[in-house]
Predict the 3D structure of the following.
Amino acid sequence: MGVIGAEETKKKKLIPKKKEEKPGVKIKKFVKTVHKKNIQTFKEFMKEGKYSKAYEITQNWKISNEIVKKAVENAVVSEVAKGDIDQARDVANMFQMLNPKFMKKTVMAGLPKAINAAKVTPEFMAGVTDFLSSKEVDIAFEKAISKAKKYTLSAKEKEKFDNLFKKEMVSDYLFVQAKHLQKYGPKAWIGYNSKDLAEFQYIYNKLIDAKIVSGKKLKVDGIWGDKTSAAIKNLQKKIVAKADGKPGYDTYRQLVQYYADQGNKRAGQLIAKLPVAKKTKKHWEDWTKATLKKEKTKEKEGTKEETKKKENVVGGAGTTP
């Protein structure tokens, strides 16, 4: 054998031979890779709100209960935070987790976020009370206050309120806020949502300028604190019988009444539409039910009108020569 041939033989000996995997090992590795991808896809579908697709994966592949439970928990909290209690309920039901303990935990976690994001509606709160007691709802609202972020009113927003005071139309804003609070019962008050509170703080300062109340002006930041609470009590002592530091329905109604008493014609027209709040639980429940009934009736009427329009369009299309 020549020198070149000997060198080639040495090289061949140095290169290790690859061990061939058994067919069973290859299949196991393949299945493991696919399983990892399916878990990742499942998590992505849950984050994206594609719950039906995520559920299909759990039916075809064995995904651990821990992974599924965590994903469903996050999804339900997310839906509650968006103010969609029905979707939250549906997601929990789809994955067989619609039980009191699970729903209480997730709704309690999502409710403060919904409050701070101003996603609370009468329908939403009606759904929430299926899972939380009134005491637990109060706790959630208190958490929302503690987690409220600073809100700075823009120049345009400030200009809007300045114009309202100039044109003596501030009663319109107060009326809208009173109607808004009217839906939620005697415990509801402005303060959970940073934007609403910032607006109240700005209005309070304008009331000082107008010499309706006296005292130090508030920092307009949408953050609840002792100074804001004390200022509201100061205002309530001037216009409302009960001074609790919580600007609720009565506070806004009495502010409209104040302007009406001062001879503001617009406020006089509006105060007639704001009944005196009775502090009984049944009264507020009846009030909320009546409000929801009116809203549902409006929705039905709107749907009927849309259907008629579509029918007219179709009928018109058919008779066109």
In short: The chain has two domains: 31-147, 155-281. Confidence is low (pLDDT under 50) at residues 317-321. The first helix runs from residue 3 to 14. The chain has 15 helices and no strands.
